[in-house]
Each structure stands twice: as C-alpha cells, then as structure tokens.
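Bug report

Summary: structure tokens for Bifunctional NAD(P)H-hydrate repair enzyme differ between web form and batch submission.
Environment: batch mode, default settings.
Steps: 1) Submit the sequence below via batch. 2) Compare with the web form result.

Sequence submitted:
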Amino acid sequence: MIAIDGQPILTAAQMRAAEDAAIAAGSSVTALMQRAGEGIAAATRRLVAGAEVLIVCGPGNNGGDGYVAATALAGLGHPVRVAASGPPKTDAAIAARAGWTGPIEALTDATPAPILLDCLFGTGLTRPLAPEIDAALARLSHAARLVIAADLPSGTNADTAEAPDWAKARPAALTLALGALKPAHGLHPAAAACGTIRLIDLGIDRPDAVTVAARPALPQPGPASHKYTRGMVAIVAGAMEGAARLAAVAALRSGAGYVALYGGSGQGGPDAIVHRPYEPEALADERIGAILIGPGLGRDDEARAHLQALIEADTHRLVIDGDALHLLDPDALRRRHNPVVLTPHAGEFHALFGTPDGSLLDRARTAAARAGVIVVLKGPTTIVADAARVRIHLAGNPWLSTAGTGDVLAGTIAAQLAHPHADPMAAADAGVWLHARAAWIAGKSFIADDLANALTPARAGA
C-alpha cells in the first residue's frame, strides 16, 4: 500500500495496454490478479483490527481479485465472508473462485458485516449499475463500519469520474488503486466517493505524462543570493488595487526577492512592496523575472491596452489571471517566445476555450497545446497542464471558496516563475502546491489575507 504523491494516472485504455504489455513480457493475468488480491488482503488486514470482512465479488477480474483476497485473509485466520453478484466469467476469475473454499452468499441476500470490501466492478465498467446491485451496495455499505473499495467504488466510470448513487451516499473510507491511479481517483464527483486513496503496486510499467502532484523541490537562497537572484515579480495594478496587493504579499511570502506594483494609488500594503507608476518602459526592466497581470485589473479599454502591450512586448514570463482572462485571445499567445501561465477557474476556462473533448485532464492539456501555454485549471481538483504533461493536485480545500484566494494563487505562481532558470511547468505546479499547503496551515474560515500570510510558514516548511 503506497502513498500516491507523484504516481502516474492512467485511463482505462492505458491501464489495459499496460497490463497487456506486462503479460507479453512474461507475466500473466493470474499472476497480476494474485498480486492485486494479496495486496488488497494485506491492506485490509492492517486496517480492520480483526473485524469480520464481507467481500462482494463481481463476475470479472475485479471479482477475481476479491476471491484471492478472501482466500488470503482466511489463510491468515481472519474472519471473512464472500457474496457474489453471479458466477465468475473470466478464466482468471474462475481460477481464483476455485481457490476459495468457503460458502458464497448471493449479493442481494447477503447479511452485512462491520467491514465491506467492494470487489464487484473495476475500471472496465462503463454502464450504470443495475438497480438491484446499487440497492444491495447501498444496504451493505450503510450497515458497515468501514467501506474499502478495490480499484474504484463499483459503478464508477474510471475516465469520466461519474459515480454511482450508493457511493455518493456512502463514500469509501479507503480506495486501493490497482496498478495505477485512474482519472476518477482525482476528478469529482468520483474522487469524493473514494475517500483516502492508496496504490497497490502490480509491478507493471506505466506512462507518466499524467501524475499526481508531489512535494516540489523549491530553490533555497545561498550565500551569494540577493533580491534579484531570488526573483523579481512585477504586478500590474488596476481598478481594484486590493487584489493586486494580495498577489504582491503572496509573491513575497512564497519566496520572491522583490515585488513591485505598477500603477494604482502608489500606497497600501506592507512596506516591502515597492510602488511604481505604470509605464510600459519600466516593465521592460531586464531584472524582472515574471509579470503578473489580472488581479483587480478591470475590464475597460485601459486594462485591455495594458494586457495587449505585455503580450506583444514578449520581454518576460507572464502570469495572466482574473480580469485579464476576460480580455484575452488565447490564440494570440502562440506567437510569444516567453512562457505564459493562465490561471482560469471553470467558467473562465470555458469562456477562453469552450468545451474540448474528453475529461478535465484532456481539456486542460488540449487548451495548453492550443495556446502554447501552461494552464492552471482551478477547482476542487486543480490541474496544471502543458501540451505534454499534466499534474493533478488532490488537496482541494472548500475553505478556499472566498474572495481573493485566486489572487493569492496568482502571486504565488508568479514568485516561482520569476526565479532564474525555473522550469515554467514546475513553477506553476509548485505555486499550486504552496497555495494548498498555506490553506491547510490557515485552517478554517480564513480570509485571503490570512492565506497570503500563511505562505511564509508554508514556504519555510517546504
């Protein structure tokens, strides 16, 4: 049972291909099933303190994993029962069923147990559960003290993250991803039905273009560091200066060495923020590592002109957020040489890119490729994507649903992007990670100012 930070995420088709490759290289379906079932049994036994386990098995290989797990638990003297929705239908599942010597109850008649281990259906299911199966799972899960799902809660679509009624009403406490994580482990509504997620390693090779975000390796200042080597961030202020100041505080507290606000009243915020008049020539300063435009910018002709000037100048890395996203033609960004990070929420993303085909992961990567940018798609699961790579941040926090937290995120990303030689994708990824860590430190019912201030201990502990 492995923690999921940094682990690859595979679609159902990619998972089948990875399993087929492992079999072609000398493994077998039976061997993979044995590893999966034994891993499920070991993880379950660690968690349930001797309580009776009811394993519900389906007709396919997920059910076969369940029969292997039941046999392994019984061999260890653990109290275990098996219920099935019907007889196994694959060769490997039939062989696994033959290894189980105990009775098998009908799923619809099974009596509950303190622990429900769901091995009915895995990644291959793309249709809704039959009503009688959904009802049986609802009954057994509500009566259980703890629900554990093997691979996914049964009835979940691995790629689209659609979740069945029973799992939304009674989420699993633990989901054991088999071989690799699937999109549904990170995307809602299915992610909320999965509970804590851990990986059971099956020893197969997996592509890693899409992964769960891991703790970043952030640069640390050394003896020769000064304010410019740590990164200078320029922020264009606009109609609502408070938003720009929030972003400025966030940039400073997340590691930038120098932050200057260009435009606005020229006052407010910590004394560490430098206020300067807005002048396009000043924004050409080669010491600037990244420019942020958008927080509180406004959407009038002046704001549009400021954005257009930065895009056409192409002198620095850009973070485009908030109001600026509403003034943007994303296709115009393809002509730029310097990297751009866009930070839309779902509504802003739709306004910019429409609704590309596929899951949220596919849409983010398609949009990034179209505009030649890095997209930070904010939401319960935040997705960071360029044309080739996707990182998924699972540490969503509902307390971030308050005004100004997006401005804090934009400033945090700008600080990481401003650092000399920073990889733009890694910088955006690190900014999202720090923002989530700061939210955890801030606790509950925080305001955006609290979140920005919490970036200091978040960065100190990183």
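Above is the batch result. After comparison, the two runs are identical; trailing whitespace caused the diff. The chain has a mean pLDDT of 94. Residues 374 and 425 are 7 Å apart (CA to CA).
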